[in-house]
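Practice problem: predict the structure.
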Amino acid sequence: MEQLHTSFKNKLFRLFHSLKGVNREFEIVSDEVENVNLKSALNSLSLESFQYVDELYAQMLTHGLGEEVKSAYQADPAIPAEATATADEETGNELSRLCSQSEEQITKAYLDIFSENFPFPCLRELMQYQMNSLQCAFMKIKLALSSRNEFAAGLE
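Answer:
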């Protein structure tokens, strides 16, 4: 069984924490949103991030490293208070800000890991796919916000 380098493990922990945070934040926000398209995009992002944590953990188990990352997998990240106040139906500014911050945080977490020496090439490919997919999910949210705001502006 191979040991993970501390730097790689710490970056993996940050990624787990970021993905779990996005899952919980956007799950809370989607419950507050009434726009069907936006709610669907938020739920998709929440579910994808949850799935990706499970996929990464399963890969670690496959390589005999489950115990090393178990604490990160089981940790429950705190949800910022702003996550409960982001469903502003007037402008969506808070949701847009949360979306941008979360996308930046997740992308940085993935890129930090990519800068490390990867012990398993298949894990790198999986993570690259995950990052690209999450960036698409964030784009869907931004498009849904934009169309909602344009529609609201047209009603004025």
